[in-house]
Specification:
The protein has 9 helices and 9 strands. Helices cover 41% and strands 20% of the residues. The chain is an alpha/beta fold. The chain is globular, with a radius of gyration of 17 Å.
């Protein structure tokens, strides 16, 4: 487990070998990427569909218009200031849910289950949410970390190769920022990381530790954290 200290609220990143689906029933609403729902249907079959909000993920979902659609659904479901939302998906789900959770009743609890390598190895920590507005990408957003992040590496088994390689590039980049290993060693470790053993999980863990140390020093992007924006 990794604990991230934040001036907003401290939160934990937990690595699990099996996903406790029954535990998902405690959420008042689960917002999930519909591709994840389809690919891992058995994980969600015990959950009442009334508690699931499916998202057909693309950039049009990272807008105020779509955030309003989700907020309307939250109101219709009777969510209140004590409600907790579960978010299951990649970065777009993270941005969308983090944003609406922050502004609903001035902030309700949410937990995040990343399902892409980019989200697991990078964006899941740091607390950033970003929403597109008209022609402006990521111009609206907040800092609002989840209560907890749960990393279940087998989600990556259904990830398209293009998305996997994109995430691996970000993981590699963060490790290069730390530079405690030779560049060639970092590249080789990234290339050899596998779902079939603990190597990919260990790489994700070590990468998040590097990013955690940076964001704890510069949580709100005023200095060192900008190093993560290179490339």
């Amino acid at each position: 487990m990794i604990t991230v200290k934040s001036r907003l609220k401290d939160y934990d990143v937990e690595f699990v070998d099996t996903l406790n689906v029954d535990g998902l029933n405690r959420f008042d609403l689960i917002v999930v990427d519909e591709n994840v729902l389809d690919m891992h249907h058995d994980l969600f079959k015990v959950i009442d569909s009334a508690f699931i909000f499916q998202v057909e993920v693309d950039e049009s979902r990272k807008t105020l218009d779509y955030a309003s659609t989700l907020l309307e659904h939250m109101v219709s479901r009777g969510l209140n200031k004590r409600s907790v939302i579960g978010a299951i998906g990649g970065g777009i789900i993270q941005d969308l849910v983090g944003f609406v959770a922050n502004i609903y009743f001035r902030g309700i609890k949410w937990e995040y289950y990343p399902t892409t390598l980019l989200a697991m190895g990078d964006s899941c920590i740091g607390g950033k949410t970003s929403i597109n507005f008209k022609a402006h990408k990521n111009i609206l957003g907040t800092f609002y970390p989840p209560e907890r992040i749960v990393i279940y590496v087998p989600f990556l088994s259904s990830l398209p190769e293009k998305d996997y390689m994109s995430g691996l590039a970000e993981v590699l980049k963060i490790n290069l920022v730390d530079a405690k290993q030779d560049c060639a060693e970092i590249v080789e470790r990234s290339k050899s990381a596998s779902l079939d053993d603990k190597s990919l999980r260990n790489l994700i863990y070590d990468t998040l530790v590097i990013k955690r140390d940076i964001i704890e020093e510069d949580e709100f992007d005023t200095g060192r954290r900008n190093q993560l924006n290179f490339g």
